[in-house]
Amino acid sequence: MTGTIIDGKAFAEGLRQRIAGRVAELGRVHGVQPGLAVVLVGEDPASQVYVRNKAKQTVEAGMRSFEHRLPATTSEAELLALVARLNADEAVDGILVQLPLPPHVNAQKVLEAIDPAKDVDGFHPVNVGRVATGGGGLVPCTPLGSLMLIKSVRRDLAGLDAVVVGRSNIVGKPMAQLLLAESCTVTVAHSRTRDLPGVCRRADVLVAAVGRPQMIKGDWVKPGAIVIDVGINRVPAPELGEGKNRLVGDVAYAEASAVAGAITPVPGGVGPMTIACLLHNTLESCCRRRGLPFAAP
Ligand SMILES: Nc1nc(=O)c2c([nH]1)NC[C@@H]1CN(c3ccc(C(=O)N[C@@H](CCC(=O)O)C(=O)O)cc3)C=[N+]21
Predict the structure, then answer these.
(1) What is each CA distance from 270 to 23, 107, 149, 232, in whole angstroms?
(2) In what residue span(s) does the Tetrahydrofolate dehydrogenase/cyclohydrolase catalytic domain sit (predicted)?
């Protein structure tokens, strides 16, 4: 038996096309063009590639893309001043400050400086609180995209046992809130959880967001479960040539896909959904800030 492979890349492409349709309509009917500002501090090559992809897809969706690349030596005060300018800029509907920030910058302070109405990452405490108390907030992109993929295989999640492995503010905690709102029985597991394999084996929906390559083994997966692999780990791949790397998830995919009912691959699973959901949230911010109706694209 082999589980259904959930094609996140294809789903994300469809979502981006629907978003582009809405953006075109906003322009036609209201003369409005959504804008997304991305702030990148430092020279990390992986981050630069990622920011370039985001900018490309933003423009392809018909939105304006504003890129701010700052040196790693940028002070916290300078960064806060830039955020204040973007908050005040009417052409900017969404602000994303790429994480991680250099150690001399207090990342939480910077995130809290972003106008919650423009916080397309959903990391501001106001949005975290709104998501936790039943909606209206901007939802973090990776959990939002993960939930869309889960619901693409099963519409009604009520009563299912969901296990989220990982408790980060960016993925684990908001993912747990979204699954709770879908009436799942949610367990959040982490590095101190006792009998992690046993806890995972109870899951009808298993979300892996730990950042450890291929940690979740095939025999940790309940037969028929929906498995969402959020991990993006670069590991050495000598079989591809000297010094080469490849991407693997937090799930041992070959083993797990033989047991799961449906599973996301890495790459091509959750990753592409994260960027599509960033555009989703930018469209949502644009509509809400202007008092225009927003329906999920
Ligand atoms: N404020 C903030 N918000 C973020 O959302 C954020 C961030 N900081 N910092 C960095 C991480 C990383 N991240 C990724 C999103 C998509 C892919 C993605 O599309 N991955 C492709 C593979 C790309 C490849 O081949 O390298 C895939 O999984 O198929 C990867 C990584 C968002 N992040």
Answers:
(1) 23, 24, 8, 9
(2) 6-121
